[in-house]
Amino acid sequence: MSRLEQPAHTGYHGGVKYELQTIPVWDAYEHEADCPLCYLEQKLEADYQRFFLGSAVMAPEMRVEVNRIGFCARHFSLLERWLQTVSASHS
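^ that's the sequence the OP posted. Answer follows.
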C-alpha cells in the first residue's frame, strides 16, 4: 500500500475527501516525487506541449492566437526541444 492509500469505500484519501478534481494531486503524492508541486508543474507543461504541438496546430483559430501572442523564451525553448525529441523518435 502507498503511504496515502485508504480503503476505497471511505471516499477519503489520507484524511482528505477523494474527489475528481483532487486525483492529480493524489497521483503526485503517490508518484513519490521529491516535490508534488514540481511533479504537477512538469506534468502539466508536458500535457500542454503535446496540446500546442498536436491537435491545436490544426485549429485555425488557435494558430491565429499563437501567432498573435506567441510564447515566452522559456516555453518557446521547451516546445522546440519537445518537438525535436518527438521528431527524433519518429526517425
